[in-house]
Amino acid sequence: MEVCYQLPVLPLDRPVPKHVLSRRGAISFSSSSSLFGAPDPRQLSQRRGAISYDSSDQTALYIRMLGDVRVRSQVGFEPERRGSHPYLCVDFRTLHSRGETVGPVSGRRVHRLFSFQRHLHTSRLVHSATTCSHNPLHILDEDYLGQAKCMLEKVGSWNFDIFLFDRLTNGNSLVTLTFHLLNQYGLIELFQLDMVKLRRFLVMVQEDYHSQNPYHNAVHAADVTQAMYCYLREPKLSKSLTSCDILLGLLAAASHDLDHPGVNQPFLIKTNHYLAALYRNTSVLENHHWRSVVGLLRETGLFSHLPAEDGLNMERQLGSLILATDISRQNEYLSKFRLHLDQDDLCLGNASHRHFILQMALKCADICNPCRPWELSKQWSEKVTSEFFQQGDIEKKHKLEVSQLCDSQTNTVGDIQIGFMTYVVEPLFSEWARFSDTRLSQTMLGHLGLNKASWSGLRAEGSLDESEPDPDPPPEPVSGQGPGPCLGSGPATATAAEEPTTRTLAQGSQEF
Ligand SMILES: [Zn+2]
Fold first, then answer.
1. Residues 178 and 254 sit within 8 Å (Cβ to Cβ)
2. Which among 366, 363, 369, 370 is positioned nearest to 452, based on CA atoms?
3. Catalytic residue among 216, 260, 273, 288
4. Is the pTM of this model over 0.85?
5. pLDDT in tens, 130-143
6. Fewer Cβ close by (within 10 Å): the C or N end of the chain?
7. 218 Cα: distance to centroid of ligand 1 (angstroms)
8. How close is the Cα of 257 to the center of ligand 1, in Å?
9. What is the enclosing helix (H) or strand (E) of 90?
10. 81 to 13, 89, 107, 334, 361: CA distances (angstroms)
């Protein structure tokens, strides 16, 4: 199978707007081979001024600057010329729409994918943001302004409905929520962040999530940011974290899945995607998320007023936090956490210990869906499964081996969730509750047990029909299957059984 890589290009039939040119720099490329063959570091250092990068940094930023992740293939398609590019490049996301048949991609659909539209949208939002930079809610539709504001007053509630908030903010939940939290903590003033740069940065972060992804989109990022905020407020953290820790924690949460392609690392590796080569098949997505946000930080100059060493340190710490979300490294982090708790030697006056706790908090926030109330948790479960199955469908269409958990014929939402809860979520949140034994931790474990019981109940009833949406309200949790029995018995605490299953889930699909 041959996989081609190609630069996203602006549609040839439209003039390139000046703001796009200025944002993307004046570097032009005559062919895609100049990008992936031998990027010229000199061009990048000229463009980025005096900041120096190592070569992998440069390549990553280079890719970041030229657009979002595209997974393209010509398998099964007749080559077709479009413009000066001799490939038929299929973005797998175009195959996601239900009912679309596999076939040559129309010009309209190809055009729709290019970043031009994204920048038009970004430009509009940035303009809006710059003209009303003192109030983040001015970009909201007036009708929903009051309701969204009302929701923000309870942004620390574990029942916070991010889906509703996203609707009320007209799809701007990530920008609105993150800005609100940074403002509420006084971080904008404390770090003397330029309001226009900050808004531009947040809008670009939000726009660089792929709204086509059923799960890994900006709403997931907003949800993780809201969960992170809940953890930052926990007594042990709130009394020890510095302002810098909080700023990093919130920014890492907001950007931790930036530019996620909607497929997992094994898929990128087996299709020889350039990101897999760039990051040597190691934490491929997480490295890309990190480099992407570094690219945005430098592009917007959000930290440009800080001493260079401080800015670089922030970038490194952001990377360390985002890389910790690689679920395939779950056991590594969990073992370290467990050891600290067993030895009772965590000292949050120690910067490295605080950083480790921030990593664990972000990991919890990233996979906290099963710990939310059922109405929210169920929606997330369906969305992530939808993304898995879409990947499986792509793999089938291209005659690739179907990744574990991605085959809609052999998996159900409930089965995937029960396995995920048992082997990944419960062990992590049980340790988190040991560390932070609070009402919130008990609430999360309670929901986890109830949700698991609900999925078990649905499975037992045989009432799950994966081809149709579930029209019935969820059943009440089965009596006697509350949080206690679910969490305190069986494989949830069986370390020996945990490892292979965790790895299986990670390799299968759980790239949260
Ligand atoms: Zn995530």
1. yes
2. 370
3. 216
4. no
5. 444 445 445 545 67
6. N
7. 10
8. 5
9. strand 90-91
10. 15, 10, 11, 50, 48
